[in-house]
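call fold(seq) -> C-alpha cells
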Amino acid sequence: MKQLKLNLNKGKRGGRREGSGRKRLHSPGVAHRSRARVSHRFALHINFKYRRQIKNKASLRLLKRAILNARSHGLRIIHFSMQSNHVHLIVESACNAILTKGMRSLTVTMAKGLNDGKVQLERYHLHVLRTLKETRNAVFYVCFNKQKHENKKFSIIDDYSSYPGTALIRQFTRRSRMCLKIGSREKWIGDRVRSFFLRKALTDST
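ret:
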C-alpha cells in the first residue's frame, strides 16, 4: 500500500491550496505593501472610504477633531473634502513615521466617533505629488470634489470642504495661513505650506 500524503493545510486559511486565503473585498482596494517613501519636499493626496454615509454636520465636526489629533503627531493637513462615503486630504509629512502616527490617530478617532464597528472600508490610498502639474490637479480635485460627484460645471459652495467654492483660487491662496469658511460661522485654519510644489500650486492659479 502506498502511503498517503497528509495535507496539513486542509481546511485552514492561507494554505498552499490554489485560491486559498482571505478573499479581497468587492473593490480591489489598496494592497498591503510598503508605503511610498515620503518627505517634506512633496505634498500627499490621501483618500479613504467608509461603509456608510458620513456626509453630515456631526461627521464634519468629528473629522475636524480627528485632524487636530493628527496634527499633534506632526502631520500637516492643508485641505480636506468630505463626500458621501469617503474623505480626501492634501497633507504634508516630514517622514513615513509621522505619516503613520498621524493617519492612525485620524482614522482611529473617526472610527471611534462613528461608533459603527469596522466602518472604514479599506486602507487609505496614498499618492505622492512629485510634480507641479499633478500637485495643482490634486488640489483642484480635492477642493472641487463636490462638482465631480454632482456633475456640476461651475463651482458651488461646499460646506464639507476646506474651500468656500465661490472665490477664485488666487483670492484665498496667496496668504501662507489660510482661513476658510465652512458652513455658517465655523472657520478652517490650514497649516503653513512648506513643500515647494504645493506652495507654487496654491500661489499660481494659471
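The chain has a mean pLDDT of 78.
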